[in-house]
Amino acid sequence: METTKNRNGQDRTFQRISHNKVRVIGESQFVRKSADDNGNITMFDFEGGPAFNIGAKIKFEKMEWKIRGINLETTSHQNLHSVLLDVSPIY
Asked: Distance from the CA of 10 to the CA of which of 24, 32, 51, 89 falls in 20 to 30 A?
């Protein structure tokens, strides 16, 4: 698990769920997202960042990963948002 700060100083926690799944969770007053014609999430942006896009790279566990999918997760706390990223390593 790794925690980083966004540009507003809020924590964003990255947690490995499986070999190709990474959860990103954090408090955010609002989020932005977009989807393709089939309803698949293609972009997710926490307030103050980070923003995630299909095909983009992220750094996690001292490696670079390519984002292949974005899935929203429900939380029971107000203003707490969570996404599950489907990733593959970039060698």
From this structure: 89
